[in-house]
User: Which sequence fits this backbone?
């Protein structure tokens, strides 16, 4: 027995209606699948734009607790400096211009008490490594003077006590300055008088 044409037409119309409803829903899902990521990317780009150049007077680096751990800024004398701080907020390392007028670059390491313990500088074109004791007093210097190596040791009072390598010796009575070669060793007493010299 065949179905009546009217009931077939109604069934086709019902199916077409359901199909159109599914197509509309599928179209909405496709639009959302494209639009949502575009909106999310646009919002993320607006919150975190990447700039070619960033200008500021200072940058501060904070840890996850909000403690200052690093800073790139200008110091009192006007030179730029990068400082790294420990968990107690004490500076442990610094890189910057120590003398702005001369453009003297320096790298300094500090102990837990905040005292400088080691410093690497280039002063007037001459590189130096200086070591300091627990009180922050200068105790040893390794450097190049006119391209020649020298190692100088200092006592607690700040008096030079030994020089290995090239150095200038001044005779106090005549004022004559003698340039000693890299193979020299000079020892001084606590008053700065020469007590031993090779050659």
Assistant:
């Amino acid at each position: 027995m065949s179905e009546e044409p009217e009931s077939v037409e109604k069934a086709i119309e019902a199916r077409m209606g359901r199909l159109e409803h599914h197509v509309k829903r599928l179209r909405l899902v496709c639009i959302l699948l494209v639009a949502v990521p575009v909106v999310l990317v646009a919002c993320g780009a607006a919150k975190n734009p990447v700039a070619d150049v960033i200008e500021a007077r200072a940058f501060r680096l904070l840890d996850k607790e909000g403690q200052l751990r690093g800073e790139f800024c200008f110091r009192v004398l006007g030179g730029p400096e990068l400082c790294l701080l420990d968990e107690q907020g004490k500076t442990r390392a610094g890189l910057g211009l120590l003398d702005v007028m001369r453009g003297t670059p320096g790298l300094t390491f500090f102990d837990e008490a905040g005292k400088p313990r080691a410093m690497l500088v280039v002063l007037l074109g001459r590189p130096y490594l200086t070591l300091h004791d627990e009180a922050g007093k200068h105790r040893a210097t390794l450097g190049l003077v006119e391209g020649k190596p020298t190692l100088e040791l200092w006592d607690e009072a700040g008096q030079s006590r030994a020089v290995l390598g090239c150095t200038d010796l001044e005779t106090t009575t005549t004022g004559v300055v003698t340039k000693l070669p890299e193979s020299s060793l000079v020892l001084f007493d606590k008053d700065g008088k020469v007590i031993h010299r090779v050659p």
Observations:
- The chain has two domains: 1-50, 58-198.
- The CA atoms of residues 132 and 138 lie 4 Å apart.
- The chain has a mean pLDDT of 84.
- Helices lie at 5-47.
